[in-house]
Amino acid sequence: MTGAAPAAPSPFPSAAACPLFSTARENLFDPPAEIRTLREREPLSRTTFTDGHTGWLVTGHATARTVLSDPRFGARAEPGHPPVPRAAILEEDPADPAGTPLPQGAPGHRRYRELLTAQFTDRRMGLLAERTEKAAEELLDAMERAGRTADLVGDFALPLSSLVLCELLGVPAPDRERFRRDLAAWSAHGASTDQVTAAFAGLAAALHGLVLRKRAEPGDDLLSGLVHGAGNLADEELASLAFLLLAAGHETTAGQLALSVLALLRHPGRAAALRAEPSLTEGAVEELLRYLGVVHHGPTRAALEDAEIDGVLVRRGEIVTVSLAAADRDPTRHPDPDVLDLTRDATGHLAFGHGTHRCLGRQLARVELRAGIDALLRRFPRLRLAVPADGIPLRHDTQVYGVHRLPVAW
C-alpha cells in the first residue's frame, strides 16, 4: 500500500507566526498599545484573533477607507465563525441568544438600506432633536430630585438612548417604561442567559405588536414610514429591522455619551470652554467621536477574491478587521492625534465606518450626543467625578468600549 500524499501547504500562516489581536486598553481613552505599535510599523498587518484564527488588521486611516469601500471585501464574514465579537455598527446581523428571524443580509442588503435611509430625513431629525433635548432635561430633573450624585450610565446615558429610540420608532408613551426596562436588561453587564433571553423575548413581542399597531394607526415615525412606504415589507421583516436599529443604536450611542462626559471631566478646561461657548458643541462631538473610538474591534470584512492592498496580497477567504480607534489616531490624517482638541476639524473620522455599510443612524447619534452633553454641562456647572478615575470599571470585555458605571456629583 502506498502512503498518503502529503497535504498541500496552507497559504495562510499559522497563529503562532502572528501577533495576538488585543482589545485591552492601558488607559481610559487610547487604543491598545499593541495596535498602536502595529499602526506605526505598517497600516495592514497579520494578526491572530481571539478565536485562534489568523487574518489581517487594518490600523491606518487611508487603508481603512480603502478596505471599507472596496467591493472585493464583503461585510459578512464566515458564517458562525467571526474572528472577534461583532461590533454593533448596523452592518451585520447581531449575535443574539434567541435566534432573531432577520432578513438575509439585512441591513447590508441594498434594498433594506435604501428603505431605511429614506426614513432618516432632515425633517425627522429636526423633530427628534427637539424631543431629545426635552428627554435629556427630564432625565436631569429626575437626577436632581434624587440627590446630588448619580450614575451617568444608568441614570442618564442608557435611558436617554432608550427614549430616543422610542421616539424614532413611535413607541406609545404607556409602553416606554417596559420597553426601556427590557432594553436595559438585554444589554446589562453580567446578566444571566435567562435574563437576556427573557428581555429579548419581551422586545421581540413588543416590536411585532408595534408593527401591527402602525399598520392600523400610522404615526409620524420611522416605523410607520417603513410600514406604509414603498417597500411592502412583511411584518417579520419590519420587526427585524426595528430590532437591528435597537441593537445598533442603544449601547453604542450611550457608551459614546458616557465616555465623552468622562473625557470632558478629565479635561476640565475643555468642559469649561463648551459651557462658555455652546456653539462649539457640534464640532466637539466630532472630535470626541474621533478621539474615543468606542467600537474597539471591527468592522470585519472577508476577501471575496484575491486583492492587493498597499502592496500586500490579501487572499480570497481571508478575514480583515479594521481598528477604527487606531485609524482615527493616525497622525497622517489627524496631526497630534492623541490630543483632545475640541476646535479641531475632525471631519473624515471613521467612528461610523465608511463606504456602503456606514452607520445609518449616524445623524441620530449626533443629535443625541449634542443634546446630552449640552444639557449636562448647562445644568451642572460643578459636575465632577464622585470616585477616583482609576476606580471606574471599563468595558474591555464587551462589543462597545466605555464604562459600566460613571459615578458623578455636582
UniProtKB/TrEMBL annotation:
<dbReference type="GO" id="GO:0004497">
    <property type="term" value="F:monooxygenase activity"/>
</dbReference>
<protein>
    <submittedName>
        <fullName>Cytochrome P450</fullName>
    </submittedName>
</protein>
<dbReference type="GO" id="GO:0020037">
    <property type="term" value="F:heme binding"/>
</dbReference>
<dbReference type="GO" id="GO:0016705">
    <property type="term" value="F:oxidoreductase activity, acting on paired donors, with incorporation or reduction of molecular oxygen"/>
</dbReference>
<comment type="similarity">
    <text>Belongs to the cytochrome P450 family.</text>
</comment>
<dbReference type="GO" id="GO:0005506">
    <property type="term" value="F:iron ion binding"/>
</dbReference>
<keyword id="KW-0560">Oxidoreductase</keyword>
<dbReference type="Pfam" id="PF00067">
    <property type="entry name" value="p450"/>
</dbReference>
<keyword id="KW-0479">Metal-binding</keyword>
<keyword id="KW-0503">Monooxygenase</keyword>
<keyword id="KW-0349">Heme</keyword>
<dbReference type="InterPro" id="IPR017972">
    <property type="entry name" value="Cyt_P450_CS"/>
</dbReference>
<dbReference type="InterPro" id="IPR002397">
    <property type="entry name" value="Cyt_P450_B"/>
</dbReference>
<keyword id="KW-0408">Iron</keyword>
<dbReference type="InterPro" id="IPR036396">
    <property type="entry name" value="Cyt_P450_sf"/>
</dbReference>
<dbReference type="InterPro" id="IPR001128">
    <property type="entry name" value="Cyt_P450"/>
</dbReference>
